[in-house]
Amino acid sequence: MSRLRLTNQSYLPLIMLLAAFLRLWRLAAKPLWVDELYTAFYSLGKSLKEIPLGTLLPPERYWSLLADPGTPWQAAQAVTVHSNHPPLFFMAMNGWFQGMGISVWSMRAFAVLWGLVAVAGVFYLGRRVGGPKVGTLAALLMAVSPYGIYLSQEARHYSLAVAIAVFALSSWIALLQGDRSLRHWLSWIGLNALGLYVHYFYSFSLIAQWLVTISRLLWRRHRRAQTLSWLLAMGATLLLYLPWLSNALTHFQAEGGTNWLSQSTPIWQTVVLPWLQSLIAAVFMLILLPVEQVPLWVTITSALIMLGVFSLVLFQINRGWRLEPLLDLWSPLVSYGLVVFGLMLSITYGLGKDLTLAPRYFFMLYPAVTVVAALALVYRRQWVVVVVLVAGLVSQLLISYDLALLKSYLPGQIGRRLGADAQPTLVLIAPQRNSYRARALSYVLAIPSHANVQIAFTEPATTETWQPELTNSDKIPAEKSTLWLVEPQRQIPFPPKVVLSSQTCSLVGERIKTEGTGQQKYQCVVAAS
């Protein structure tokens, strides 16, 4: 079988079309999840405290919360006060909303745009490192990677951070190679500063670039004359970040600022899980099959297939590594990747903040992994790339139809359940605390548009007969109706009976628990006078 023939830039438009198709296909099919709702509210200049309490409203009234964007400065204020992220992405999305309108599709399309920029950028990064063939293959790998598509299809800041990183790395490699034009210096400084304003984890990329650069300057004495230029560039980057530094420190010191990364697990899990989770992230960059909410035999079969495909491609990467003179532990991108991963593990084990907890946190490693894989595979047999293509296409097909990569608390499943009855339905949701408001709202927005449902956010129900406080009890149907009580992380039983105006509601069936969210169905009838 012939070897790869990727000799020029003419393939890039086709790769970009493939990347766009895979990222835009069924873009709005899945319901918004918690983090995307945070993105929406902060980008609009709002907070989740604007969700009304104690008032029965139809689903469309909750959708109206995602409207009327404020100014970019209001977006910056919202994310600074109510979140622990830097403001640039949210300000940019505010401007996107002003021009493109607000919908599930437009929210995610903004991330898709930057995902496509990243695909184009990794072509230039790969070309800079190893020539046009490497650039073309790197772009193809990122175009079909389920991990890259996932980062591009969520209304979050990861695809923008990756896009900035690939161009910053391109300028960095150019500078290391001796192409020290003013354009490369300015882009390296400016892009790295921008990255810090997009996501705090971008600092891993910056630190890795700096450490690798300093080590090369110290190791190769003839380059020490360049030290001043590099130090000035690093200092300029820090100066550009100074206006935000105090806010960043406040975010890290705030109560709950990084608590979501702290896990209480047995010691053996604390040691083993980061490595296992890192392996899962690496496999995800190549292939993803159904492993959640499926029978055990499907999970096992999918896991074996994924590990088999990953091992096959990894074996070919290893063979290519040994044959490629540009690949060794000292090469800039390899050193960069090792430092980024080392920083993640240092924080995980040293500070007890598990940065391997979710695959998306590996986004600063992703560009380097892609280009290194392209370098190792570029002179391998064509069937290797065919395997990668098929793995990516099959993965995206399964993800698009909600057969893989399900959100852990299943908002779509719960939303469909709440809107399933033909008769009038009332849904009372008790978020318990502010951190659950976005999760509760995601259930509401996942209710089918045709459902005859009224929803209210309320205080948690008692364990005895309960009568909720509603400001518009006149909206309660006069005829027979269905009631659902929904409460994330409810540990105590739901009440045996609920009183709603002129109706009395009795338990129907057993309590349902979906990934920690309790749901209890009731049948309501008009109370005897």
Automatic annotation (TrEMBL):
Cellular component, GO, one term:
plasma membrane
Note the topology in the membrane. Multi-pass membrane protein
Alphabetical UniProt keywords: Cell membrane, Glycosyltransferase, Membrane, Transferase, Transmembrane, Transmembrane helix
Q: Where is the Glycosyltransferase RgtA/B/C/D-like domain?
A: 84-245
Transmembrane region(s): 109-126, 132-151, 158-177, 228-246, 266-289, 296-317, 329-349, 361-379, 385-406
Question: What Pfam families does this protein's entry cite?
Answer: PMT_2
Give the residue range of the signal peptide: none
For this entry, the protein name equals: Glycosyltransferase family 39 protein
Source organism: Leptothoe spongobia TAU-MAC 1115
